[in-house]
Design goal:
With about 290 residues, the protein is α+β, with helices and mostly antiparallel strands. It contains nine helices and 13 strands. Helix 7 packs across helix 8 and helix 8 packs across helix 9. About 0% of the residues have low confidence. InterPro entries: NUDIX_hydrolase-like_dom_sf, NUDIX_hydrolase_dom.
Length: about 290
């Protein structure tokens, strides 16, 4: 196994900092393990009669989660995004509840997002469209980002969310965005100031014509740039210019295009870590609900 400080594995380690349960408390929905309660809301949930720090917390009716999330937002425990996300127990499971996306980390619930590599083939090689995040974004303002990326709202499939984000973020027509191909799924579990992020990223490639120019429609992107894939490779290897999880999607892209040798020890470790998570205590347990 490569050392911990290899240029690309460092990004996986930075996105897999959570050790479950750590200082969190088990949370179940409808009698099934669902997440991990952040200490910031533990006392409040005890007051609500939903459990204790010693026994864990539970909500018998998953449909009540949305109302609970609204109450916590009104009381200032988190800042509402005014956007509901579906709650799933794990990868590939159906939705059993809904809650504002801002509350997901407080409950340690799985969240799903979409990321799209906007690619252009030219005579001198492959190019990648990048976006510069607006300076007023809550998360990683001013960082480099994908051409299209975002969370999957409640009631949407990942492919539906991709079409929505493509139109809003880069003014890509639905008939063009629909040509995007799902290429991989990436998981990680990350400690953030807002809580525990247990994310699944659905990753897509879309090859765009040379004369395509993206236009920001929703104000979330400051500017767009078209750069050679090798330049993106250098930025990921040498810097932290890209938003934290964008690095993971680009590493997957580099592996598929063999800028990173997928059969090398580092390449194999990267592929395992992208697919299963890379917990500091127990690799492969990033999204697990079992204590490590």
């Amino acid at each position: 196994m490569p050392s911990d400080d290899t240029p690309f594995l460092r990004h996986l380690r930075q996105c897999n900092t959570a050790v479950v349960p750590g200082n969190r408390f088990a949370f179940s929905l409808g009698g099934q393990p669902a997440g991990w309660i952040d200490p910031a809301i533990a006392d409040r949930l005890e007051q609500e009669g939903l459990g204790s720090r010693t026994e864990g917390f539970a909500l018998a009716n998953p449909a009540d989660l949305e109302t609970l999330g609204e109450k916590l937002a009104q009381e200032g425990f988190y800042r509402s995004h005014h956007e509901l996300f579906d709650v799933r127990l794990d990868v590939g499971q159906p939705a059993i509840a809904r809650i504002d996306r801002g509350a997901l980390p407080l409950f340690g619930l799985v969240a799903i997002g979409v990321h799209m590599n906007g690619l252009v083939r030219k005579q001198n090689g492959l190019y990648l469209w990048t976006g510069r995040r607006a300076r007023n974004k809550r998360l990683d303002p001013g960082k480099l980002d994908h051409l299209v990326a975002g969370g999957v709202p409640a009631g949407h499939s990942p492919s539906e969310a991709l079409l929505k984000e493509a139109a809003e973020e880069a003014s890509i027509a639905p008939e063009i965005a629909a040509q995007a191909q799902e290429v991989s799924r990436i998981v990680y579990a990350l400690n953030r100031p807002e809580g525990l992020r247990r994310d699944i990223l659905y990753c897509y490639d879309l090859f765009l014509p040379e004369d395509f120019t993206p236009e920001a429609a929703d104000g979330e992107v400051e500017s767009f740039s078209l750069i050679k894939l090798e330049e993106a490779f250098e930025l990921v290897r040498e810097t932290d210019e890209f938003k934290f999880n964008v690095n993971l999607v680009l590493i997957d892209l580099f592996l598929r295009h063999r800028l990173i040798n997928p059969t090398s020890p580092e390449g194999q470790a990267l592929q395992r870590g992208l697919a299963y998570g890379l917990s500091p205590a127990s690799p492969g347990k990033a999204l697990s609900l079992e204590p490590v």
